[in-house]
């Protein structure tokens, strides 16, 4: 396969920076470009998945939507790492809290991801592979979040295969007991793909709703706010 790929219309590797921030929502990618990047240019809009490259405090960065769920997002992760020589992908997204102390608008840094997804079954047999982010990048993000005064939690996240899932109550209680912090839908695929290609990955979340208190943010807030998470990702993005 050559570039442009079937899913990314950038005609040159140079159109995309070494680091790409990836929200699930392409409109959130557009929001980040418009509000944080200087001299940004759009490099893709294939299938409505928007991507932009610009400068944050003089540092060249790209931002692009990934779609929802592991199968959709892994298409983009693979193509960016393999065909566009991207070195680092930072997922920025919303998540649902699974712990009482992880509150609405808190930030979560994923230290690993668990999932009911079967994507790795043919790779590792009966071994349940647990992908993790790049440690140095994770540590940098944690220290930076503390420096900025953000309420930040570090721990395992659950990358669910289903948005509208009827998770068994016993399973949910076990995930809580074993200190899984929140549920989202893409990090398991991101960390796995990064490990496959020897690249870097990180996942940063803003808590948009709570499975404990049943609080929830509006769709507009999910798309157009959560600026602490965006700023943190841009601050720690490698050049």
UniProtKB/TrEMBL annotation:
EC number per UniProt: 2.4.2.1
Annotated site (Important for catalytic activity): 222
Catalytic site: 209 (proton donor)
Enzyme class: transferase
Superkingdom in the source lineage: Bacteria
Domain Nucleoside phosphorylase: 20-228
Keyword terms, alphabetized: Glycosyltransferase, Transferase
Biological process according to GO: purine nucleoside catabolic process
UniProt xrefs under CDD domains: PNP_EcPNPI-like
Pfam families from the UniProt entry: PNP_UDP_1
Positions contributing to phosphate binding: 24, 28, 47, 91-94
InterPro entries membership: DeoD-type, Nucleoside_phosphorylase_d, Nucleoside_phosphorylase_sf
GO cellular component: cytosol
Binding site for a purine D-ribonucleoside: 7, 184-186, 208-209
A single MF term (Gene Ontology): uridine phosphorylase activity
Annotated catalysed reactions: uridine + phosphate = alpha-D-ribose 1-phosphate + uracil; a purine 2'-deoxy-D-ribonucleoside + phosphate = a purine nucleobase + 2-deoxy-alpha-D-ribose 1-phosphate; a purine D-ribonucleoside + phosphate = a purine nucleobase + alpha-D-ribose 1-phosphate
Subunit field text: Homohexamer; trimer of homodimers.
Alphabetical list of NCBIfam families matching this protein: deoD, PRK05819.1
Family: Belongs to the PNP/UDP phosphorylase family.
Function: Catalyzes the reversible phosphorolytic breakdown of the N-glycosidic bond in the beta-(deoxy)ribonucleoside molecules, with the formation of the corresponding free purine bases and pentose-1-phosphate.
Record PANTHER family: FI09636P-RELATED, URIDINE PHOSPHORYLASE
Listed name of the protein: Purine nucleoside phosphorylase DeoD-type
Species of origin: Anaerococcus porci
